[in-house]
Amino acid sequence: MLNIINKLIRKKKSLDKISAPLVHQISKRDEVFLLKYEKLLIGELRFNENEWEFKYSEDFKKVKDKFNHIAGFSNLNKVYRNQELWPFFQSRIPGLKQPAVKEILEIEHIDSTNKFELLKRFGKESINNPYELEFV
Fold first, then answer.
1. Is residue 126 predicted with pLDDT exceeding 90?
2. Helix (H) or strand (E) holding 9
3. Which end of the chain, N or C, is less packed with Cβ atoms under 10 Å?
4. Residues 6+ apart with CB under 8 A from 79
5. Which long-range contacts (CB under 8 A, 24 or more apart) does 9-14 make?
6. Residue 49 pLDDT level (bands cut at 50, 70, 90)
7. pTM as predicted
8. CA distance 97 to 104
9. Residue 54's closest CA among 37, 77, 38?
10. Angle CA 97–102–107, to nearest 5
């Protein structure tokens, strides 16, 4: 166990010496996540600068009676927009005080206040629901 901790410390020190630019910048184009259940596309989550957008897919609308709507998104035909990430998606981001999460953020140079980057890194799967969130 002590060997593992020492290796991590040495790795961190060697990473600190590298002066690499941060690669986790938000571009001005739409960033897109696809929300899926098995092979069915449920909807699209987009992020552009400071606005989130969610809408259901046409495929989901065709089979809407077989599935529950996502909490907070009751209208299948509405394009939802918000400055803040909705709780349904926010819950996919783990607690940032967890040591393993802190280490990932540090090693990968992810800003802990950047919801887009956090969702991109941690949001693919969730213990809260069976959906997959794929960054494309």
1. yes
2. helix 2-17
3. N
4. 53, 54, 55
5. 11/107, 12/106, 12/107
6. confident
7. 0.77
8. 11
9. 77
10. 170
